[in-house]
Design goal:
- The chain has helices at residues 11-29, 32-39, 48-57, 83-92, 111-120, 134-143, 157-169, 181-189, 209-216, 234-242, 252-255, 260-270; strands at 62-67, 70-71, 75-76, 97-101, 125-128, 147-151, 173-178, 194-198, 224-228, 247-250.
- It is α/β, with parallel strands linked by helices.
- Helix 4 (83-92) runs parallel beside helix 12.
- The protein has an eight-stranded parallel beta barrel with strand order 1-4-5-6-7-8-9-10, surrounded by eight helices. The chain has a two-stranded antiparallel ribbon with strand order 2-3.
- The protein has a single domain, classed as Aldolase class I (TIM Barrel), CATH 3.20.20.
Amino acid sequence: MRQAGSEEETVLDRIVRAVSAHLAEEKKVTPLDILIGRAEGLPKAPSLAGALRERCDAGRCGVIAELKRGSPSRGLIREEFPVEELAVELEAHGAAALSVLTEPDFFLGSPDYLLRAVRRVAIPVLRKDFIVDEYQLYQARIWGASAVLLIAAALSPARFASLHRQAKALGLDVLAETHNEEELAVVLDGGAEIIGVNSRNLKTLEVDLSVAERMMSKIPNKLLRVAESGVKNAADMRRLREAGVDAFLVGEALMREEHPGCALQKMMEEL
């Protein structure tokens, strides 16, 4: 990452810097060894890979429906945010899994949202955050998450491989996020099994679905391929499915609807 305060500092740099500052304070309150003890013996959470693979085997695309209040690019997306109701509704209308933002400063997320969602649904729940430290993996495990997001652009190759290995050892699946061929090589070398291609450039926040279209053919067929960001409707899903996408992570398009579950069901029926 570039040094904080430099003229070339990106949104991703600022987010990672803020996350690291929060982590430093959290570790003072609850040291890592305490988390390690709390994580021991916890029941295994539902498998994200299993849920997505089940949809693929049935000839259908799975949707990871994202619970997201806001983002740096869009600001506040949803004023009222009844997490339990949203989670239950999305599960009832066909979501294969949920993604819950826990990053508070830029995405208005909260660990409490994740905890509340996990308690109400049987489908897997992904902790959506900027994971840079094993401490966050133990948090996710304790909170009941099935999986975490690891963003190649935010990690060195060695750090990605280490965090991926530690997550799997904890029983967490990993959605490995990429944006280009260089990052794809990093996550493949690091053992990734679920590979996401984010059509939003985290440095400029611009969205271009052709990024996912181009990248899908470069991902081995045996792996799960997930399209992230920019999917607004069934036409976008159809376009990306033809490029080889197995599953979609959809957030804003659902969260802007009064009834996100109905919107999700309509998308899937049209697809």
